[in-house]
Specification:
Largest sheet: 6 strands, parallel
Number of helices: 7
InterPro entries: UPP_synth-like, UPP_synth-like_CS, UPP_synth-like_sf
Mean pLDDT: 92
Number of strands: 8
Protein name: Isoprenyl transferase
Strand order of the largest sheet: 5-6-4-3-7-8
Cofactor: Mg(2+)
Strand content: 15-25%
Organism: Novosphingobium capsulatum
Helix content: 40-55%
Low-confidence stretches: 1-15
Order of helices and strands: EEEHHEHEHEHHEEH
Shape: globular
Function: Catalyzes the condensation of isopentenyl diphosphate (IPP) with allylic pyrophosphates generating different type of terpenoids.
Length: 241
């Protein structure tokens, strides 16, 4: 059985020879530390982090990105205290309910990666309705990683590829949660931590990376533009010379 070809990473030209990113992913880290610095509960940091999400999504569309993937809740985050998990799920519900009109109006397609159906049934239904409502939008894809772990994603993809009769890099890539998105160009992590934390391990194989000390609630569209400027200055060889 022959595998379908994997899309080759394409570098768009900004007109002056500088590459433009199509797909950016962000590990949104530092909400708790942001709140601690202000002697506030972690929930306050997460709430301010949602405001940074709104600003990033709006900026991504204005900057011409095709896809923005945000690490919202990892499969390891279930180890956190129950009250913090409850706060995070409540914020997700509130974000979808309050922002879905704007997301849809602005031509944003909502996509979920990860095993989100393990979440509460009412939240799953809310997510499914939002995904269905925005399915035809084409300006920007907003992929939110929920109950996501990259090692688990790769294992699921490999199992599906094996069930179809062939395990190759191409057949695994075709079964990843992100298979319908452009190849990942740039991965940003806030808060000064320098690790991937089980996020998009396969997709990041040739992605550029930017690690910034800025805590996520303080991350603004200007920080996103600065990261894209860094990306534009880099020479991407994809293993060649």
């Amino acid at each position: 059985m022959s595998a379908a070809p994997v899309p080759v990473p394409q570098v768009r030209d900004g007109g002056d020879g500088a590459p433009l990113a199509r797909h950016v992913a962000i590990i949104m880290d530092g909400n708790g530390r942001w709140a601690k610095k202000r002697f506030m509960p972690r929930a306050f940091g997460h709430k301010r982090g949602v405001e940074a999400v709104r600003a990033a999504v709006r900026a991504a569309g204005d900057l011409g990105l095709e896809a923005l993937t945000l690490y919202a809740f990892s499969s390891e985050n279930w180890k956190r205290p129950a009250d913090e998990i409850s706060d995070l799920m409540g914020l997700l519900r509130a974000f979808i309910r309050s922002d879905i009109d704007e997301i849809d109006r602005n031509g944003v397609r909502l996509k979920i990666i990860g095993e989100y159906r393990a979440l509460a049934p009412d939240l799953v239904q809310l997510i499914d309705d939002a995904v269905a409502r925005t399915a035809g939008n084409t300006r920007l894809t907003l992929a939110i990683a929920l109950n996501y772990g990259s090692q688990q994603e790769i294992a699921r993809a490999a199992a599906r590829a094996a069930a179809k009769g062939e395990i190759t890099p191409e057949t695994i890539a075709a079964e990843l949660d992100t298979a319908d998105l452009p190849p990942l160009d740039l991965l940003i992590r806030t808060s000064g931590e320098v690790r991937l934390s089980n996020f998009l391990l396969w997709q990041a194989a040739y992605a550029e990376m930017v690690f910034t000390p800025v805590l996520w609630p303080d991350f603004t569209p200007d920080h996103l533009r600065a990261a894209l400027d860094q990306f534009a200055e880099r020479e991407r060889r994809f293993g060649g010379r």
